[in-house]
Design brief:
heterotrimer; A alpha+beta (386); B alpha/beta (325); C alpha/beta (263); B: 325 residues; alpha/beta; 7-stranded parallel β-sheet; 5-stranded parallel β-sheet; 27% helix; C: 263 residues; Rossmann fold; 2 domains; 9-stranded mixed β-sheet; two-stranded antiparallel sheet; 6 helices; 13 strands; globular
Amino acid sequence: MNYQLSEEEKMLQKTAADFANKTLAAVAVESNENGEFQDDIYKKLGELGFLGMTVPEKYGGVDFGNFSLTLSIEQISRVCASTAVAMSVHNSLTNWVILKYGSDENREKYLPRLASGEILGAYALTEPSAGSDIGAINTSAVRKDDNYILNGSKLFVSTGDKAGAIIVFARTDPDDRNRGLSAFIVEPGFPGFSIGKVEKKMGLKASSTVELVFEDCVVPASNLLSEEGRGMGIALSALDGGRIGIASQALGIGQAAFEEAIKFAGARKQFGKRIIDLQPTKWKLAEIATKLEAARLLVYSAARRRDMGDTSTKQISMAKLFATRAANEIVYDSLQIHGGVGYTSEFLIERLYRDARALEIYEGTSEIQKLVISREILKEYSHLLS
Amino acid sequence: MNDVLIFGEIRDGNLKKVIKELITAGRIVTEGTGGAIDAVLIGKGASELSKNISGFGIRKAVCVDDDQVEKYSTEGYAKVVSDMINENGYGYIISAATAMGRDLSPRVAARVNGVMFSDCVDLRFEDGRCVAKRPVYSGKLFVEIAPVGEVPVFITIRPNNLTPAETDGGETEIVTRPSGVTQDMIRALATEIIPMAGGRPDITEAEVIISGGRAMKEESNFEILGELADLLGGAVGASRAAVDAGYVPQPLQVGQTGKIVNPKLYIACGISGAIQHLAGMRTSKVIVAINKDPNAPIFEKAHYGIVGDLFEVVPVLTQEIKKLM
Amino acid sequence: MKIIVLLKRVPDTEAKILINSEGSGINKEGVKFIINTYDEYAIEEGLQLKEKTGGESTVTVVCMGPEESTEIIRTALAMGADSAVHICDPALEKPTPDMTASVLAAAIKENGFDIIFCGKQGIDYDMAQTQAFLAEKLDIPQVNVISEFEISEDNKKAFLKRSIEGADEKVETSLPAVISCAKGLNEPRYASLPGIMKAKKKEIRKVTLADLDLSDISLENKSTIVKWLSQPKSGECKMIEGEEAAEKAAELARVLREEAKVL
């Protein structure tokens, strides 16, 4: 299928694919089984430029853009979804946020080290009582002289205990629900910062997911992104990029599950035939391939449009909704095709199935995506309402 | 152009036995051309070693033994062979597709404007010229290729494919010849040979290969295969997965990016049978596969198969074979 | 040092390769084309030599091939090569090793060279001849199938190891020379993203036979392919039955001795 990639995009996709197939594949199974964070892999990704894809050259990045990031995350996800998640958060939710909303001082201070992979990025938004409801965030940030003092906790922070720069959302105005949030760059070395619970998850086991605890945490005022009160806007615009990243991750997982199904069905014989020669299997594969193709076109289109400066969220939400659901359906069908052995850790589909489940939940649940889409279409078609 | 020259490779003071397969090839050609077969042996002890090929109907065994050719050098040996071709007008120059043959043959072919067919697995004479069969596309396909016009034809033959020739009582004249090589002609010289540890035959020449895959789990487990290999005078091989995992060194890798082997017996232990691996060993005369997975692709290509744990099967197999010997 | 690396565009033999319907070659439909696997080791070795000798050293890739070869040339540039020469001419559609060597020799001489790296063979025709023909035409030594490479202090000699049966052969050669590379020599680097960016600005010099003064090169083919053949079909695998592993192993030993007669 020709997706009209430029020569550079083809080379980039090949590097990502080769890296995934050789270097990452060599450690993926073990690191996922043992829940190990792949420090060495991130170092190598940094050296190749994959951790600075949204950062301009003057800050040490390669600035290939959203579509290239999509291509890269898709390839990495085929082999290890955990690595892909860290890569997505790092590029879209940390680097991009600092680039867009940070002061020149912050950009110069953090971006080169993030782009090279010297430090990793993280994004702390969710709290125990604030998941989909961002407005319910109540980690507080109180201005005191040249600092903000943060108090509260954050939940489910990917790479939270490995990052050198974390975007933290806290409430600077307790009276304004939606416009009372602000965003800060927090370093783990700031006083009052600590790691809380380390989650044991169903999947994405090579990804580190932790609770962050702020107890009178001292954050320099210069680390405030943009202005006080801009937090909600920053969070939502960042999530646009993050959502494309997750949708790309879904493509990779779906592609892997699809290929695994073909490999297995082509080898497995029952009733004297390969199961791939049986009608039910062929039809299942046709459905899987179609869903995957539709998802891919939707995601690629959303990424390309974002590169062209299109800030609308509708297609991004559609891409996230569709691709993550498709991936879950695909891993389900692929596991069914595998039969009993697919339920064991001998086969890759077992991990793909567990990794896929998070896709419809994080960075905006499918329900939130439907909220966004319905809001957008009602605006678009408001002329049909009397 | 009717005469054939075969190249006898001398390594470690021995004449490589593949020369008997080259004689078979030479005979196929001369049966068609009506010409004679000469042999050239270059290196220390050539005259003495030429006795190994008397009685095979070779017309002349030319032995080149001076100091300049004691160690192999492409340009030194190329001088000898190309001079002989220019003097005698050989139409076919046949070597083994060994490291030396593969290095020397094309250089000589270039020097005398010949054409070369590399790594041939079969040969016949038809319509006044030879037709050689050789693998292409990493062994996925074969071509039958023939020369066009009057041109010296260089053929390298893969060991263990043709039947070694039997003696036919024919006499061979043994002559010595000065190499004609001077120091300044040699710009790349082999200075030392470092044998691989183990003392087992090279996998490309072994008659028996016991091969292990990723299922071997550890470097030390390859000793189980080694024991069986030693019992049968064979070599230990490995799949790419085992090499990449660091269980065995690269020279033991059988496959598309490893070595092509053609033993009489190939036992694949815990090897799934990826196409790339099969490319390296599929011409083995008897292939045995031992694997836990009944669906492993290797069973499609094997002659005999056991579904089982190699760690249980192989040691018993070794014991059982010991009993039979 | 002027380091030359030879590149060839070949079909990906890891995929399905079938004979075309006319029986005249392979069916190119759906076949992906890649850098010849062994050439990747050559590129990496060239880049490492450049890094080691520093200063004025450059790596120039030379590729004889169709228009589409620019893709692989660009990849080599993205890996770090400095410039490229692409010899592209419709007359070179089916080159022999002799023709290829003549053309490469002309291009390489024009560029200037101190050392030439190439892959040990092309994974399409697996002939492993071009490097010897090239070395002969340039009147320089050759060392094939190397597993280790080291250059002398004065960059005038190289010390190599090459694989022979059951051993490693140490070779010393004067430079310039043609060096063919094998798997295990090094670990080829990925084309990094900054590298891909930089490659956009690097020069690919495109030349025809006329540009190399080879318009009247002999295009005669000294060989002809009589037939293309697929792999012979394999028979059924005889599964050895038994209750336990021990029983199966014993039966296998018996079969190998009495039936297959290989013991």
